[in-house]
C-alpha cells in the first residue's frame, strides 16, 4: 500500500524527522483558511510518479494565486489518476538536495540503505546512488556509512545519519517495502528538511500493522473498479487492453497463459489468478469480474492442479453459462475429480480441451484475434 | 540418487493440524512419503492420518529422527516455525506458506545461512523426487521418475511442464519449486549446482518469470559452471511493468526484471529458451541426445 | 534496581499477564476502603527474600482480621528492612504452582529461560528447574520449548508459553536483569495467574529506561544511609562490620585491600571504590562517607593508578586531616604526580607508605585490630 | 613474539575526541603505540595529538590499514561502535567503556563470535605488551618486558601485581585485562590458550575475583591443557554475599561465585594460589625454575 506524500510526511514528522508545516485541502475554497506564509508550494496528492512533469506541483506568492492554482489542480488527472487533495506548504529556500531511501534488495536478501548527494527525479537509477547493505540488525553506524559515502562531513554527516536512523525505525516497525525521502534538503538557513516522502507498506504485513487498519481501500487509486473489487475478494486481477479474459490458478501459469494468447495472435484482457484450491464461489466471483470487463469477448479458463477440485470449478462454469448465454468460454480443466467435472459440464455446451496450446488457439479463434 | 531428498528421508510437518497441513499430509503419505511426525503446540499426543503430533519440533525430532521439516503454518507464524526448525537441527526446511512478510523472510533466510540449513521456499510447492518422496503440495500423479531435473519459481507452471514431459515419456529426477517471493532460500544457482552434481540428472529445466535478476545470475553461472544441458522458460512476456503478477516477486520495477532481459541472458549463455511451455519437451529431447559437456 | 512485588505485577498486568486484582495500603486504616472479596492474602512489600518465613505473608477471612494483621505487618522488620506498605489480594484457589524466570547466564553469554513445574521458595536451586538458552533473537517457540520441558501439555502448554512470551518482552524492552514469576499458578477454575513477581532493572541501563526515571532512590531500601549517599554521589560503597575504613581505586584492588586487612588481623569496615581518575572533590566525599561511619577507627587509603593524579588525592587528604584531627589515616599513594603529592602532604602528619603490605599492617597496628 | 599485539600493530581509537579517548590516545602514543587513526562521526579531518580523525571506522581502516580498534565511547553507544568495528573487519576490538547495559553486551559478544572477531573487555584496562604496544589505559610505566603472561578481571589489581613483579625484576610478555563485567569477550580460558602457545611466555599469572564461574572453568582447562605454570590470585575473600563489589560481575549470588570455591578449584588443579598479591612474586620465581610440563 503506497501512502500519499502528506501521510508519509505526517508519520515521519511524528518521530522527529523535520518536515515542512503543511495543510491538506480537498476543496479549493479551503485555501481561505490557510495559516501558512507565502510563497507556498501546492502539490497534487497522487500516488503516481511524474507528478512534476504532469504539472502537479505549482508555486504561489499570494492567496489569489493559490486559489486559482488550487481550482486548476483539484481534479487534475496525472497518469490517469484524478487529484482529489492538495498539500500546501511554505516554499523552502534550498541550499542542497539529497536523496535517501531504504528498501529490500532481493539479490542480497537484505535491506539496503540508498543515498545520493543529488536529489530530484529519477535519481534512483543514477550512478551517484550509494548503497549500504544492512547485513544484520540495523545500527546507527550504517546511517553514518551511507552519509559518508554520499560525500557528507561534519555536522551535515550527523544530521543526515540521524534522519536515516529515524527512517529505518519507521521502515522496520511499519513493515515497509520502501521508505524514501526525495529530496531531503539542507535549507539556506542550515536546517535539514524532508521535502517529499514516499512510504509503501508491505501488502502481506499490513494485517499486523494496526496503525494502517482500514487504510487499504482508500489507497488503491491506481486500479480499476474491477481490480479493486478483486482485491477485496482476495483475487489477483490486473487488467490489460486485450479481448481475451483469462482465469487461471497459479501466478506462473497465468502469465504463461497470457503469453500463449499473445503467441497465438490474441491479446490478453487481464491477469487473474484464483489461487490454489479455489472453490465454486471463488471461481464464480472470478468469472463475474472478468466478464464485467466490456472489452472481454471470450473467457479462457485454465485450471491445472492437484488439489483444485475440478468439479467445484465445473459447477461455477455451469452456473455462469446458464446466466451468461452470450459469453463465450473456453475451458482447460485438469486435476482432481476431472471426470466428475466433465459430467457436470455435459449439456452446457462448455467443452474442456486438455491440451493447453489447443485451448488457447481455440480461444483466439473464437473471437479473440487482435 | 536424487537431489536433497530420497525415499529414506524422514519428514515432520509443522502445522499438521491446520487445513492445509492435514490435507497435504494425507496426500504426501498416499504418495509414499515418510511423514514421521507432526508438530502443533498444545496438540501433542493427537494423531493426523495416523501420524503422531508433538508439541515441539525438538521432541518430534528426538522421538522420530526426522531431518526435514515441511512448514504449513500461517504467514505471521512462519518466522517462529522456521526458527524452531533451524534450532532443532533440521537439515532441510521446506516452507510452503504464502504471504510471509518480507521483513520476516529476510530474518528466516539470514538465520538459515548462519546455520547452513537448506531452505526451500517460502511460497512454493515444495520438492518431489518422483516415485520416492514428495514434500509439499505438488500433485504427485503428474510426475514420473526419470532424468530431468526441474527448478521453478512457479507451482502450477511446473505441473504444466512436468505433465507434458511425463506425457512424452520423459521422467524427472527431482523437481524443486523454489518459490515466488522476493527473498527465498535455495535459488536457481544453488539448485543448478545440485543437479550438476547429481549423477541421475541428465538435463535441467529452469522455469523463471519476470521480476528480480535471479535468471540473469543463473545464466552467468550456467556459462561458467554447469556441464549439463539447461532448457529455460520465462513466464510473463506480456506482463505490464509496475504491477505485481500474483507472486510477490513477479513485478517489473524501474525497468528491471523484464522477460526480455532474462531470455537474452539465457541466449547469451547458449541456453535454449522455450517460447511456450509445450516446447520444453522437444528441447529436452534434443538436449538429452547431445553428449554432456566436459 | 529491584522492583517491589506490586510494581512488578502492575507492569506484568499492563501487557496482559494475568495478576490478582490487589490494593496497596501504607496505613492500616486504609483496609476500611478495601474493595476485595474475602478471604484475602496480606503481603509485606519488601525487596528481601525469605518474606514468608519471617511472617510477612498472612491470610484473613474478614475485615476485622485484616485490620489486626495490617497493624502488625506495617512496620514489621524483615531481614533488617522495615515494611512500609502491604499488598492485599483475594486469596487464590491454587491447583498447581509453577516457576518461570528469565535472566542472563554469564557462562553461556546469553539470556536464558528458566522454568519448573514446582513453584515456591528456593526453587531456583532445585534440580527440577529446566533451562532454555536464547541463542539469538527471542521467538515464541523458545517459550514452548520451556513449557514442554516443564512437563506441560495441551492448553496448559500454550497458556504458559504465552506468559513467557510476554515476560520476555518486558525483560527485553525494560533492560531487566531478572524477570520472574514465582509462583505462576493454575487456579482451580482453570485460569493462569502470576501470584508473585520479581523484576530487577539493570543499573547500567536504567538511564535509557524513561519509565523508571526517578525510581531509584525509593528502591534502595536494603542499604544504609551512607550507602545511599554514596550511590547518589556515584561512589561504590558497601559497609561491613569492621573498624578499618577503606578507600581504593578499582574494584579488584579494593577487594584485595580488604582481604589484606583481614589477613593481617583487622576487619574491613567497608568497600569503597573511588573509580579511575578521581579528583580532589571525589576523594573528599569518599573520605567523609567513610569517616561518618561510627565504627571506623582508622581509614586506609590505597590509590594506585596511572591516571589518578596523586596531587588531587593529596589535596583532599590534607583538607580532611585539618578538619578531622581525631581521625587516623594511613595512606598508600602511587602513580601520576606522586612527588607533588608528597610535597602537599608534608607537615600534615600523613605519611604515604609505598608498600601495600606495610601500609595495611600499619593500619591494623594503629587501632584496627579486631 | 607476544600475544595478540606487537610493535607493528596498527590501532585506531573510536571516540578519540572525548575526554577519555583524548587523554589515553596521548598516553598510548607516548608509550610508542602505533595509533594511526581516530574515529568520531562528524569530526573527520580534525586531529588529536597529531592523529587524524575520520568519520567512520571503514574510512579510517582504508586510509591507514588499522587492524585493531580501541573503543572509548560512552556506554549506550558502545554497541553501535562495536558493530561498526566488526563490520569494518577489525581483527581485535578492545572495549574500555564501563557501564554498557548487559543486553547490549550479549549482542556485542554474539556478533563478535559470529564473525570470529576477538574482543577484549568491555569494562577493562586493555592489553599491553611491555615495551612494544599498549592498548587501553594500563599505566605503561609499571610494566617491564619479560616472560610472564598476565590475565586479570581487574585493572588496578593488575597494576599492583605487575608493579611487584617489575620491582622484583620479573618482566611480562603480555598483560590482558579481560574486564569486570558479566559478559566479556576473551576470557581466562581463551587467554590461557594464547599464552600456552606463545613461545615467549614462561609462566602465567591469573587474577580472578568473586562472581561467576570463570575461574572454576579456567582451573578445569589448566588441568587438561595448559603446559606452563599458572599462579592464581583471587580477590574478594572478605566480600559479603549479594552485594555488587564495584564490577558488575563481582557479586556472590545464590551461594555461587565465592572466593573459596575458586581457590579450591585452582588447588584441585594443582595451581599455586597466592594468599596476598605480593606473594605472586615468590610463586612466579619458584615456577619459572621448574621445567615445563610436557
What attributes does this structure have?
heterotetramer; A: 370 residues; alpha+beta; Dna Ligase, domain 1; D-amino Acid Aminotransferase, Chain A, domain 1; Rossmann fold; six-stranded antiparallel beta sheet; four-stranded antiparallel beta sheet; 10 helices; 32% helix; 27% strand; B: 294 residues; alpha/beta; seven-stranded mixed beta sheet; globular
Characterise the protein shown here:
With 370 residues, chain A is an alpha+beta fold. Chain A folds into 3 domains: 21-90, 2-Layer Sandwich (Dna Ligase, domain 1), CATH 3.30.1490.20; 94-212, ATP-grasp fold, B domain (D-amino Acid Aminotransferase, Chain A, domain 1, 2-Layer Sandwich); 225-368, Succinyl-CoA synthetase domains (Rossmann fold), CATH 3.40.50.261. Chain A is built from 10 helices and 17 strands. In chain A, strands 7, 8, 9, 10, 11 and 12 form a 6-stranded antiparallel beta sheet that branches. A 4-stranded antiparallel beta sheet of chain A has the order 1-6-2-3, with helices on one face. A 3-stranded parallel beta sheet of chain A has the order 14-16-17, with helices on both faces. Chain B is of the alpha/beta class and 294 residues long. Chain B folds into 2 domains: 11-120, 3-Layer(aba) Sandwich (Rossmann fold); 139-287, Rossmann fold. Helices cover 34% and strands 22% of the residues of chain B. Chain B has helices spanning 19-31, 57-64, 78-87, 102-115, 155-167, 188-197, 214-225, 259-268, 279-289; strands at residues 10-14, 34-39, 47-48, 51-54, 68-71, 92-95, 118-120, 126-129, 133-136, 145-152, 172-177, 203-209, 230-235, 272-274. In chain B, helix 7 (214-225) packs parallel to helix 8. The relative contact order of chain B is 0.11. Chains in contact: A-B, A-D, B-C, C-D. The interface between A and B is large, with 49 and 60 residues.
Amino acid at each position: 500500500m503506497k501512502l500519499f506524500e502528506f501521510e508519509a510526511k505526517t508519520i515521519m514528522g511524528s518521530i522527529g524527522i523535520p518536515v515542512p508545516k503543511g495543510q491538506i485541502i480537498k476543496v479549493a475554497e479551503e485555501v481561505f483558511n490557510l495559516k501558512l506564509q507565502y510563497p507556498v508550494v501546492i502539490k497534487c496528492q497522487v500516488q503516481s510518479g511524474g507528478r512534476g512533469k504532469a504539472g502537479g506541483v505549482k508555486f504561489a506568492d499570494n492567496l489569489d494565486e493559490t486559489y486559482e492554482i488550487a481550482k486548476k489542480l483539484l481534479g487534475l488527472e496525472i497518469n490517469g489518476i484524478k487529484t482529489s487533495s492538495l498539500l500546501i506548504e511554505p516554499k523552502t529556500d534550498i541550499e542542497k538536495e539529497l536523496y535517501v531511501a531504504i528498501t529490500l534488495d532481493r539479490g542480497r536478501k537484505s535491506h539496503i540503505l540508498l543515498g545520493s548527494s543529488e536529489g530530484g527525479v529519477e535519481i534512483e537509477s543514477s550512478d551517484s546512488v550509494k548503497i549500504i547493505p544492512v547485513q544484520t540488525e540495523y545500527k546507527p553506524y550504517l546511517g553514518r556509512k551511507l552519509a559518508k559515502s554520499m560525500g557528507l562531513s561534519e555536522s551535515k554527516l550527523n544530521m543526515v545519519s540521524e534522519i536515516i536512523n529515524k527512517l529505518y525505525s519507521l521502515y522496520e516497525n511499519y513493515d515497509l517495502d520502501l521508505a524514501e525521502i526525495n529530496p531531503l534538503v539542507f535549507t539556506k538557513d542550515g536546517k535539514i528538511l524532508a521535502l517529499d516522502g514516499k512510504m509503501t507498506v508491505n501488502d502481506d504485513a499490513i494485517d499486523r500493522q494496526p496503525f494502517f487498519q482500514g487504510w487499504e481501500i482508500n489507497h488503491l487509486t491506481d486500479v480499476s473498479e474491477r481490480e479493486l473489487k478483486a482485491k477485496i475478494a482476495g483475487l489477483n486481477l490486473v487488467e490489460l487492453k486485450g479481448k481475451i479474459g483469462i482465469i487461471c490458478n497459479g501466478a506462473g501459469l497465468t502469465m504463461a497463459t497470457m503469453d500463449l494468447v499473445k503467441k497465438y495472435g490474441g491479446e490478453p484482457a487481464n491477469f487473474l489468478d484464483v489461487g490454489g484450491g479455489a472453490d465454486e464461489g471463488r471461481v464464480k466471483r472470478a468469472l463475474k469480474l472478468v466478464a464485467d470487463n466490456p472489452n472481454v469477448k471470450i473467457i479462457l479458463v485454465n485450471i491445472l492442479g492437484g488439489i483444485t477440485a475440478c468439479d467445484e470449478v465445473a459447477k461455477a462454469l455451469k452456473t455462469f453459462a446458464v446466466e451468461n448465454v452470450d459469453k463465450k468460454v473456453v475451458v482447460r480443466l485438469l486435476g482432481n475429480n476431472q471426470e466428475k467435472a466433465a459430467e457436470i459440464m455435459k449439456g452446457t455446451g462448455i467443452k474442456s480441451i486438455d491440451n493447453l496450446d489447443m485451448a488457447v488457439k481455440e480461444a483466439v479463434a473464437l473471437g479473440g484475434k487482435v | 540418487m536424487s537431489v536433497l531428498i530420497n525415499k529414506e528421508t524422514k519428514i515432520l510437518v509443522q502445522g499438521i493440524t491446520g487445513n492445509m497441513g492435514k490435507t497435504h499430509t494425507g496426500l504426501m503419505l498416499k504418495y509414499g512419503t515418510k511423514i514421521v511426525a507432526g508438530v502443533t503446540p498444545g496438540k501433542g499426543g493427537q494423531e493426523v492420518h495416523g501420524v503422531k503430533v508433538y508439541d515441539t519440533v525438538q521432541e518430534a525430532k528426538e522421538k522420530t529422527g526426522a531431518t526435514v521439516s515441511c512448514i504449513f503454518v500461517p504467514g505471521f507464524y512462519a518466522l517462529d516455525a522456521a526458527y524452531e526448525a533451524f534450532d532443532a537441527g533440521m537439515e532441510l526446511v521446506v516452507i510452503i506458506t504464502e504471504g510471509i512478510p518480507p521483513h520476516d523472510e529476510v530474518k528466516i533466510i539470514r538465520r538459515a545461512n548462519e546455520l547452513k540449513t537448506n531452505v526451500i521456499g517460502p511460497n512454493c510447492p515444495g520438492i518431489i523426487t518422483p516415485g520416492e518422496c514428495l514434500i509439499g503440495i505438488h500433485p504427485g500423479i503428474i510426475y514420473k521418475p526419470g532424468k530431468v531435473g526441474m527448478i521453478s519459481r512457479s507451482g502450477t507452471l511446473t505441473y504444466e511442464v512436468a505433465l507434458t514431459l511425463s506425457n512424452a515419456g520423459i521422467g524427472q529426477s527431482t523437481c524443486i519449486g523454489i518459490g515466488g517471493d522476493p527473498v527465498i532460500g535455495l535459488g536457481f544457482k544453488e539448485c543448478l549446482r545440485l543437479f550438476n552434481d547429481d549423477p541421475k540428472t541428465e538435463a535441467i529445466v529452469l522455469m523463471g518469470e519476470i521480476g528480480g535478476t535471479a535468471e540473469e545470475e543463473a545464466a552467468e553461472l550456467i556459462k561458467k559452471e554447469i556441464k549439463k544441458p539447461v532448457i529455460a522458460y520465462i513466464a510473463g512476456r506480456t506482463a505490464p511493468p509496475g504491477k505485481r503478477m500474483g507472486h510477490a516477486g513477479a513485478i517489473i520495477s524501474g525497468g528491471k526484471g523484464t522477460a526480455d532481459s532474462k531470455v537474452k541472458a539465457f541466449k547469451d549463455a547458449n541456453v535454449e529458451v522455450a517460447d511456450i511451455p509445450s516446447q520444453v519437451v522437444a528441447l529436452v529431447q534434443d538436449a538429452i541426445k547431445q553428449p554432456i559437456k566436459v
